Amino acid sequence: MAIKAFDKYFWNLPQLSRETDFEKFWEKSISDIKKIPIEPEINDDHKKYTSKFKAYNISYNGFLKARVKGVLYVPKKSDRSRVIIHLHDYNRYPDKSIAKVLSDKTAHLFLIMRGHDIIENRTEEELAQERPLGFIVENIIDMETYYARSVYLDVYRSIDFLRLVNFIDCSKIGIYGKGFGAAAGFFTAVYSSRIGAIVLDSPLFCNLPLSQNISSSDTSREINDIINVQKTKKAQIKKNLSYFDIINFSHDITCPALFITGLKDSISPSECVMGLFNNVQGEKTIEVYPDGGNEAGGEAQRIKAVNWLIDSVLTD
After folding, report:
1. Measured between alpha carbons, how far is residue 171 from residues 97, 168, 193, 214 in Å?
2. In the CATH hierarchy, which fold is given to the domain comprising 22-314?
3. Contact of 161 with 58, CB cutoff 8 Å
4. I need a labelling partner for 139 at 20 to 30 A (CA). Which of 213, 220, 231, 233 fits?
């Protein structure tokens, strides 16, 4: 039984399932986003200041000119800091208190995934009801305007935004992604040479053919629901999703990557995370929690991972 469990989690190497035009699709996507005027805005917000950080509300044009928003925390003691981008999970929102425990060796940009402004003020009870957002299936038949494409490109665009902030050093940037945010961060790390290291905390959208059958995530649930309603579109939906399955980018990432997974995670199943990890061919580390779920390691692991990122970003 123990040997079977080991094979299930550690000894699996899923095959890539790239369509013939996979690379052209993403080359065109990068070209498209670069044609959109970025129109950055950055406004001081004294109410969000902490003892260590100044805070700025930021926004810029993402894909299809949708405004992407976020909060940038900049160390008070530093004139020009390097930065870590924090990407929250689908149907979640950036932790408002996290800046209080972050190291002030770097700046921290908390991006808000498009559409997620609506859940900022949800109560714990409302969040527990797991009301579907429906974003993850928005335009899922139309590759050009599909929600996941928009989010991936929004995050990629954040690099261009940061380069316009004169008190940020963008020579080496870190990314901390959770769930679907980890997927968008992984895409950005593949296509931007400025990413120095990435943390993938319980990533979603990896090995979708498997995860769609075993994951209890909001993304899987919403996708399976629409497939059940539009059964004639099932093959097309699965084909479209292959362009966003980050396992199909796994051979292209070059920066160091730290993975976090819990073997009892039903949202981001560990066998899917391990499959992605095994396919990554560059420098990589994985923190495995045998009794952990989607919050494997808790706050202590998150702080440890952020410190790993800081050390990676600050090392030339």
Report:
1. 28, 9, 9, 40
2. Rossmann fold (3.40.50)
3. yes
4. 213
Q: Residue 73: beta bridge partners?
A: 55, 108
Per domain, the residue ranges of the chain are 22-314
* Closest by CA position to 253, among listed 217, 224, 284: 284
Listed residue (250, 260, 267) closest to 286, CA to CA: 260
**CA pair distance 288, 217, nearest whole angstrom:** 20
What DSSP string runs through 160-202? HHHHT-TTEEEEEEEEEEETHHHHHHHHHHHH-TTEEEEEEES
With bands split at pLDDT 50, 70 and 90, how would you rate the model's confidence at 3? very low
CA distance 257 to 177: 11
SS3 106: coil
- Please give the DSSP secondary-structure letter assigned to residue 121: T
H-run or E-run covering 289: strand 284-289
Can you tell me the distance from the alpha carbon of 33 to that of 42, in angstroms, rounded to the nearest whole number?
Answer: 20
Q: What is the pLDDT of residues 33-62, one digit of tens each?
A: 999 999 999 999 999 999 999 999 999 999
Q: What percent of the chain has pLDDT over 90?
A: 82
Question: Strand (E) positions, 7-127?
Answer: 41-44, 53-61, 67-75, 81-87, 107-112
User: What does the H/E/C string look like for 177-188?
Assistant: EECHHHHHHHHH
CA distance 143 to 293: 32
Residue 126 belongs to what H/E stretch? helix 124-128
d(CA 110, CA 86): 5
Q: Which of 92, 116, 96, 120 lies closest to 108, judged by CA?
A: 96
DSSP state string for 245-277: -GGGGTTT--S-EEEEEETT-TTTTHHHHHHHH
pLDDT at 122: 65
